[in-house]
Design goal:
By secondary structure, this protein is mainly alpha-helical. It has helices at residues 2-26, 33-40, 44-50, 54-76, 83-101, 104-117, 121-130, 132-148, 157-177, 188-202, 210-220. The relative contact order is 0.11.
């Protein structure tokens, strides 16, 4: 049974890798399932057994690129027991999101989806659902745990997540999609500055957090 599952997983990976190359080279609309089967070295029957439609195959490709980020988002909230640990968690999330979303293959695929979205709007919906919405949901969950611990205060989990991720995603747009390859993530100091400004906006006034320590530091200078 384990061997059968391993073969199935290897075959799925073989198909998604072939599909990704073709999507990047020719675009989604111009890539046929026949071409994917040929490039992957599998029969059409095998291809359709794994992925009944091209849209499902595209979603699988996208999910593969973001899987590590989603895993990271599922773990970091365990360490957010105070504001400094929340800060470290948010910086780690932002760094992982940027590394993943500025990856050359991800940027290339995003450009393909954007180019095809007007003609095939379901591709845009798949892209949005697979990547940005799940990242926002993961960050919102992290922040909700911090709020439940009394570390921060806000009324809308999703709005708070978007407040943080909006500035982070400008690097994906401006330096990735609209920039030159390869796109590089911003310096860690810049990411930390964005996170610090975000925490200033949501930490509780009575918290002995980052803003209070900054004020004390300023008074001593």
């Amino acid at each position: 049974m384990a061997t059968r599952e391993a073969r199935k997983s290897a075959k799925s990976r073989q198909i998604t890798e072939a599909a990704q190359r073709l999507f990047l080279d020719h675009g989604v609309a111009a890539t046929s399932m026949d071409a994917i089967a040929t490039t992957a070295g599998v029969s059409k029957r095998t291809l359709y057994a794994h992925y009944p439609s091209k849209e499902q195959l595209l979603q699988s490709v996208l999910e593969g690129l973001i899987a590590k980020t989603l895993d990271r988002l599922a773990l970091v909230d365990e360490h957010a027991s105070d504001l400094p640990s929340l800060r470290r968690a948010l910086v780690a999330v932002a760094e992982q999101v940027l590394v993943t979303l500025l990856d050359r293959d991800y940027i290339g695929l995003a450009r393909v989806v954007i180019a095809e979205a007007a003609r095939l709007p379901e591709l845009g919906a798949t892209f949005r659902r697979t990547i940005p919405e799940r990242v926002i949901a993961g960050v919102a969950d992290l922040l909700r745990h911090a709020k439940n611990r009394g570390l921060v205060s806000f009324s809308d989990d999703e709005a708070a997540a978007r407040l943080l991720m909006g500035p982070i995603l400008t690097y994906v747009l401006m330096d990735g999609l609209l920039g030159q390859d390869p796109a590089r993530p911003p310096r860690r100091e810049r990411i930390e500055a964005i996170v610090d400004l975000f925490i200033l906006a949501i930490e509780k006034p009575q918290s002995t957090g980052l803003s209070k320590r900054r004020r004390q530091k300023g008074d001593n200078q």
